[in-house]
Amino acid sequence: MAQTVSIALKGKNLILAWQLLVLALALFFFVGLSRAFPFFPSPFKVLRAAGELFISGEIFAHLLITLYESVAGFMIGIVLGIWIGLVLGASRYLTEVFEPIILSGYAVPKIIFLPVLLMIFGVGINSKIANATLHAIFPIILNTVVGIREVNKILVKVACSMNATNGQTFRKVYFPSMVLPIFAGMRLALGFAFLGSLLAELFEAKTGLGFLVAHFYNTAQIAKMLAAILLVFILTMSINAGMKGIENRLSRWRATWRS
Questions:
Q1: Which pLDDT belongs to residue 71?
Q2: How many domains does the chain have?
């Protein structure tokens, strides 16, 4: 019964998401066709500009660079975030000391640290990866700490009483309890990493989707700018949908394990 209700709710959420997307597209077409804003190109010009970007291949090199920066920052954020989260979650004292700092770092717009990153890593691709990492690491740290708190202490004591090794205790007790919160943090972190690389490219870059959007704006190629923004939107939606699908599979696996 509970599973049926969950599926129904997910179906309603999916329908609502598609309705909002259709509404946004309808608004976009209305604004473009109404000519209420003279500088705003028609949707057909935007679609034609998107076709030109793909046919010429101009978009692909910038897309690959942004994806590389985002994925590299995301992977570094996973390694550092989980390690820091495990250290903090294992000690109540460390959690109480550092949790306010982590929460503040999560809330602060990370783009203000970009000048510092540029001084440390230079104006090349390393500063973009560092900014992506800085955006990605905080949700992973926080969700790893949450995952450790969800571990059932009774199960840990039972494992110890059965002389289970540390590896067995981790695989059978800690990992199933922690995997879903950590993956939820990873899902947020991937979007944040993509955001971090785009923001860094907007301010200081010669390549990448962020640079391309800024370049089209500065050269008054508004149709191409909106086409690039549309690509970013579609890309982030696809990434989020893929991560959500994996998260749903993990959720079903954990429910099976607990039963």
A1: 93
A2: 1
Q: How many Cα neighbours within 13 Å face the side chain of 185?
A: 26
Cα 124 to chain center, whole Å? 22
**Is a pLDDT exceeding 90 seen at residue 175?**
no
How far is CA 251 from its chain centroid? Answer: 19
Residue type, 105: G
Give me the torsion for CA of 89, 91, 96, 101, rounded to 10°.
-60
* Chain mean pLDDT for the chain: 81
pLDDT tens digit string along 25-72? Answer: 666 666 655 565 666 777 778 888 888 888 888 888 888 999 999 999
Instruction: Evaluate whether 70 touches 193 at the Cβ level (below 8 Å).
Output: yes
CATH number of domain containing 83 = 1.10.3720.10
Query: 């540390």: which residue's tokens?
Result: 166
Instruction: Tell me the residue range of the domain where 77 lies.
Output: 66-203+232-258
Tell me if residue 252 falls in helix, strand or coil: helix
In single-letter form, the type of residue at position 221 comes to Q
d(CA 53, CA 55) in angstroms, rounded, equals 6
Output the pLDDT for position 83.
Answer: 92
